[in-house]
């Protein structure tokens, strides 16, 4: 095997900066608009019924097109799709910021999601083929994992600052600045290793089935939140998702050049990553929603103060990812980072179940946030790396897309499922308690709301515990140390890289 196959790009660390910036832009966009939504609704006259579509249009396009985006990156080149995704995302963001009516904003949000689905897998797969040395890979994925975990909270902070001090439109315009810097960096320092593309034909039936199936699944959870789990439209969407995704698996096991090769999905360790990571995101995204409402509606925090209140969790994620996960990844098996990490996150959630109307931020919320951030940061980092570790170079894009898909679908499920649980618990609380006066009624409403949050967070504790159990039982590989991961594309490389990670 030639030395050129393992040669690394001297500009890879500069490239990491711009790849991380692009990832931050995509991740924070999932929450930055949430803070600005009330202002945007008022300015454009968006109805309450259409309000959710400002979020849903983005998540549907993003979640539905991720696998297609990952496969296109493998086919035409990750750097090319990275740049196209950035430019498209910037254009869609500018369109949304300049929106003069509801339709224009919703269309722009859908375009953002579509270009985000091209950008996110390309970014992660670029890292997987550019950083092949085990120790360097640990540092690079430490940075990436911290951004992937903490970006949503950064979005809350930035969204609050821009909405309060400028205008809701700047929550979209700000992406143009991110994208311009990232494109300039990508064109100058990002270099995709040669011989890592997958030039086989595009699986059109697979693309259609995967896209429609994922859109049905994500939209089903959105409808469950607004219409209820037993509504005909909700059940119909879930049935359609099962049928379409079942047909997708059948097609992928039979076609010559599948969109999602079963060798990627059926690897025990990668399958464990996708499942445990998706479950963890369910709990995490639900918590963002409840804590935002709790701090603003119950504790009376402003949007900016609410965003700043999330900073300790972001700091915990960065510390867990870069100082614990990255330092131990080359010496400790992933299960011993992911399992305890998710469990520590569950302990943080457990503390947060103690919130009451009168509980203090410093006494209850802060310690819970710090433990949650440390735990998830420690777990996310090796998960991101292992998901693409020793995968065949031609499959790097689609393996990366599966990581993003598990997170996106997990986020949609978490928001809908836990919000529904909280609402039901709040309704039950109100039905079982009676207020003697208007003032008492107001206090009762606040108590019922917090009770609902607490019940939902208990579910999140259970979900993270299951995630930890899956990480311990399914992921059985050794640590990600050792020699370089060869970024080649020949037969010899395929034989070496197609096996699961070898224990050291």
Automatic annotation (TrEMBL):
This is MFS transporter. GO terms for biological process: response to antibiotic. It comes from Streptantibioticus silvisoli. InterPro entries: EmrB-like, MFS, MFS_dom, MFS_trans_sf, Sugar_transporter_CS. PROSITE patterns: MFS, SUGAR_TRANSPORT_1. It comes from the Bacteria. Pfam families: MFS_1. The chain crosses the membrane at residues 15-37, 52-69, 81-100, 106-129, 141-162, 168-190, 202-222, 228-251, 272-295, 301-324, 336-355, 361-384, 456-475. It is a multi-pass membrane protein. Residues 15-480 form the Major facilitator superfamily (MFS) profile domain.
